[in-house]
């Protein structure tokens, strides 16, 4: 894996060479039309950006030459320097020098820039009038020998999206061919099918790899954000960044950007206490916030933790009862994970006052919706006066997902592995009817269980989710799914296997069915409905209410 510094350098070089080509193009245009302000403004912008980028990454020679050229063009723009033939020659030489410096960043044998050329740039920059210019004649660069192309190119994300969609279609056909080859038991077809499988898999990961960027490209923006909020609220904080080198799909990083900004602001604004308050609690006056990323098999886990005041569970319960999200009696028996799930309800807030940065809980439904849209998961863990941890579990790809296949009423279904906590087989007698629902104990945790056939097929008026008599057989296959800090057991008829699937949206009018997140085609040619775990969980909770 590339280091963060190497990745930044490659991005800088690719961008700088694009700037170099654009500068040559705009100077040529300006030479033909000296009165045209548009190429002049563009030249100035390119040089200013190149100067800033080079200085930020430590290439001071490039920054210095860019600065001299930027100054020269600012004099031309302000009419203090005319765009004469002599001046144009020096400026072209200066641009050529920039190209040479950019191309030789990694060349240890490259020496210092031509001091005669630099003197001419200084003369232009420091001149008081055109008549004061006495330029030294320098050998023009032989550009025909210096024409090179960058090893790096920029590709529009939408082009990579299109490629990944095509790979998805190829995966569907690949699985179909694999299935046919097994059915026919034809040796040559099996060999071709196996080869196709390997090539398709390599192609899939190659396209996905081309879309990867370091999370550091986003993480490194947060120290300033956190500092601004802390300064406005007169708090002291230390933000630690961990795992900036972890790679993630660029589209996924883009989608979660606003969510992370919201979470970091909330952590500073309503998680971390004022310095005096922290001191009274025996804490350091300086609040600690850690934004970390790590890889977990095919997923990326991002955590945001603080050592602030935590979330008051009793306060959340009171707020949930007052908003009629739950009855007072039911609230008394809730587990902490269920209590915290209320924070993701639309408009739910614990803030006592409205601030510029909102209250902890405000907007968390928007955060959750953004994470849901990419098939990810978000959860909260909190302890009063100890702090809060937000955990974002994100997929590596939006188009291709790992899924668990199963059957209900001879219909194939799939659930994304992202939302699958565990799979268990339980005796019917281990399920208990409590009110109108079924519950069971799994590893010491009481979990609500639903017969998926009943949830998907029964009319709401006739729905009896807690009726054990409708279950088939003695042993029940249960998929435990997790969403919004809640766990729910789904009883299915048959379990099959895990496999990568390509999720396609449902066509109208089926796209209005909330419980389904899309459809995929299995290798056997059969259609498989993909369940939307978030919609199922919401539907079940609303039905109970």
Secondary structure blueprint with pairings:
Layout: H1 4-32, H2 37-57, H3 60-77, H4 85-103, H5 115-126, H6 143-146, H7 157-184, H8 187-210, E1 212-214, H9 216-219, H10 222-232, E2 237-242, E3 247-249, H11 250-271, H12 275-280, E4 287-296, E5 299-306, H13 313-322, H14 328-332, H15 336-341, H16 364-373, E6 377-383, E7 387-395, E8 400-408, E9 411-416, E10 420-427, E11 432-434, E12 437-442, E13 445-451, H17 452-457, E14 475-483, E15 486-492, E16 494-502, E17 516-521, E18 527-531, H18 533-544
Parallel strand pairs: 2-4, 9-18, 13-15
Antiparallel strand pairs: 1-3, 4-5, 5-7, 6-7, 8-9, 8-16, 10-14, 11-12, 12-13, 14-15, 17-18
Helix pairs in contact: 1-2, 1-4, 2-3, 3-4, 3-5, 4-5, 7-8, 10-11, 11-16
Overview of this protein structure:
The structure is a single chain. Strand 12 (437-442) and strand 13 form a beta hairpin. The protein has 545 residues and is an alpha+beta fold. The strands form 4 sheets. The chain has a 6-stranded mixed beta sheet. The relative contact order is 0.07. The protein folds into 4 domains: 4-146, Four Helix Bundle (Hemerythrin (Met), subunit A) (Up-down Bundle); 157-210, Orthogonal Bundle (Helix Hairpins), CATH 1.10.287; 213-395, 2-Layer Sandwich (Heat Shock Protein 90), CATH 3.30.565.10; 400-544, OB fold (Dihydrolipoamide Acetyltransferase, E2P), CATH 2.40.50.180. Mean pLDDT is 80; it is low at 128-133, 141-147 and 356-362. It is 45% helix and 22% strand. It starts with a helix and ends with a helix. It catalyses: ATP + protein L-histidine = ADP + protein N-phospho-L-histidine. Keywords: ATP-binding, Chemotaxis, Kinase, Nucleotide-binding, Phosphoprotein, Transferase, Two-component regulatory system. InterPro entries: Bact_Chemotaxis_CheA, CheA-like_dim, CheA-like_homodim_sf, CheW-like_dom_sf, CheW-lke_dom, HATPase_C_sf, HATPase_dom, His_kinase_dom.
């Amino acid at each position: 894996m590339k280091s963060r510094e190497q990745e930044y350098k490659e991005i800088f070089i690719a961008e700088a060479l694009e700037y170099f080509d654009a500068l040559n193009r705009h100077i040529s245009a300006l030479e033909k039309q000296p009165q045209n302000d548009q190429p002049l403004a563009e030249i100035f912008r390119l040089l200013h950006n190149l100067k800033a980028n080079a200085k930020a990454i430590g290439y001071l020679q490039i920054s210095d030459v860019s600065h001299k050229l930027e100054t020269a063009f600012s004099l031309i723009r302000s009419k203090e320097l005319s765009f004469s033939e002599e001046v144009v020659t020096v400026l072209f030489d200066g641009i050529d020098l920039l190209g040479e410096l950019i191309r030789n960043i990694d060349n240890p044998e490259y020496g210092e820039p031509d001091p005669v050329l630099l003197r001419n740039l200084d003369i232009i920059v420091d001149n008081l009038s055109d008549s004061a210019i006495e330029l030294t004649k320098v050998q023009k660069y032989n550009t025909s020998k210096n024409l090179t192309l960058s090893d790096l190119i920029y590709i529009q994300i939408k082009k990579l999206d299109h490629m990944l969609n095509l790979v998805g279609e190829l995966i569907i056909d690949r699985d179909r061919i694999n299935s046919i080859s097994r059915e026919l038991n034809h040796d040559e077809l099996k060999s071709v099918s196996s080869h196709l499988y390997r090539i398709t898999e390599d192609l899939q990961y190659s396209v996905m790899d081309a879309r990867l960027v370091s999370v550091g490209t986003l993480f490194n923006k947060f120290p300033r954000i956190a500092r601004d909020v802390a300064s406005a609220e007169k708090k002291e904080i230390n933000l630690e960044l961990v795992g900036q080198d972890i790679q993630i799909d660029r589209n996924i990083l883009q989608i979660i950007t606003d969510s992370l900004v919201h979470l970091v602001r909330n952590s500073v604004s309503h998680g971390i206490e004022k310095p005096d308050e922290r001191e009274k609690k025996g804490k350091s006056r300086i609040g600690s916030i850690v934004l970390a990323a790590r890889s977990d098999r095919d997923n990326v886990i991002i955590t945001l933790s603080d050592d602030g005041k935590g979330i008051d569970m009793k306060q959340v319960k009171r707020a949930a009862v007052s908003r009629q999200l739950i009855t007072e009696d039911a609230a008394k028996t809730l587990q902490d994970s269920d209590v915290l799930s209320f924070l993701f309800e639309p408009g739910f807030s614990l803030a006592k006052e409205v601030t510029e940065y909102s209250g902890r809980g405000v907007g968390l439904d928007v955060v959750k919706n953004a994470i849901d849209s990419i098939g990810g998961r978000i959860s909260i863990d909190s302890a009063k006066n100890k702090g809060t941890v937000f955990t974002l579990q994100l997929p590596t790809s939006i188009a291709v997902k790992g899924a668990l296949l199963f059957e209900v009423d001879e219909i194939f279904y799939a659930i994304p592995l992202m939302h699958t906590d565990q799979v268990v087989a339980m005796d019917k007698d281990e399920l208990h009817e409590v009110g109108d629902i079924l519950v069971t104990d799994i590893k010491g945790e009481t979990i609500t269980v639903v017969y998926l056939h009943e949830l998907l097929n029964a009319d709401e008026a006739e729905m009896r989710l807690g009726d054990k008599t409708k279950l088939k057989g003695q042993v029940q296959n249960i998929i435990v799914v997790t969403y919004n800090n809640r766990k729910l057991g789904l009883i299915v008829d048959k379990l099959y296997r895990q496999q990568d699937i390509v999720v396609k949206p449902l066509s109208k009018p089926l796209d209005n069915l909330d419980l389904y997140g899309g459809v995929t085609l299995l290798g056997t040619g059969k259609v498989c409905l993909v369940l939307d775990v978030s919609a199922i969980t919401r539907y079940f909770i609303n039905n109970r209410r």
